[in-house]
Design brief:
GO terms for molecular function: nucleotide binding. The chain has 86 residues and is of the alpha+beta class. Helix content is 20%, strand content 28%.
C-alpha cells in the first residue's frame, strides 16, 4: 500500500513554541487535511494551549489562509497566536 501521508513543517511561535520547547515540528497528515487540523493536533498534545483555539490565525508558505485550506506535501505552516507587548 503506498504511503498516503503528506509531510508539513510547522513553525512555532509564542505559546506554541514555549509548550513544545522548539521552534519547528515536522508532522504527517492524511491527504486533504485542512490546516486547522494542525492546530487541533497541537492542542490535543498540549491542552494548556486550549485558550489559543479561537484566536490562532493560520499561514501556509508565508500567506495567511482560511482554516479550511488543505495542506499540501512540503507546506510550511505557521500558527500565529496574538502577541502581547510588555
Amino acid at each position: 500500500m503506498p504511503n498516503s501521508e503528506i509531510s508539513v513543517t510547522v513553525k512555532l511561535f509564542a505559546g506554541y513554541q514555549e509548550a513544545y520547547r522548539m521552534s519547528e515540528l515536522v508532522l504527517k497528515f492524511p491527504p486533504n487535511t485542512p490546516v486547522v487540523a494542525v492546530r487541533d493536533r497541537l492542542l490535543s498534545e498540549h491542552p494548556e494551549l486550549e485558550h489559543l483555539r479561537q484566536i490562532t490565525r493560520f499561514g501556509i508558505n508565508l500567506e495567511f489562509v482560511a482554516p479550511d485550506t488543505l495542506l499540501q506535501e512540503g507546506d510550511e505552516i505557521v500558527l500565529i497566536p496574538p502577541v502581547s507587548g510588555g
